[in-house]
Amino acid sequence: MALDEFEAEIGLLLTQINKQPEDAHELYLQLREKLNELRAMNMQVPDDLVQLERQLEAEFALKQT
Fold first, then answer.
1. What is residue 65's DSSP assignment?
2. Is there a contact between 56 and 49 (Cβ–Cβ < 8 Å)?
3. What is the block-wise mean pLDDT of the chain (65 residues), using blocks of 10 residues?
């Protein structure tokens, strides 16, 4: 998959997270999967997305306790 396609899919997921907060956990998992695909292809994940991933991970970890 081309970088442009990843960027478009990630952008769509971020939009959906904002519009559908009730589905945020599922969307976060999809986002994480996309970022892991980038990592598997040795592509650089932008710092802002890494920070977002960490924030969402922490948020959902708190909700599970």
1. -
2. no
3. 82 88 88 92 90 89 75
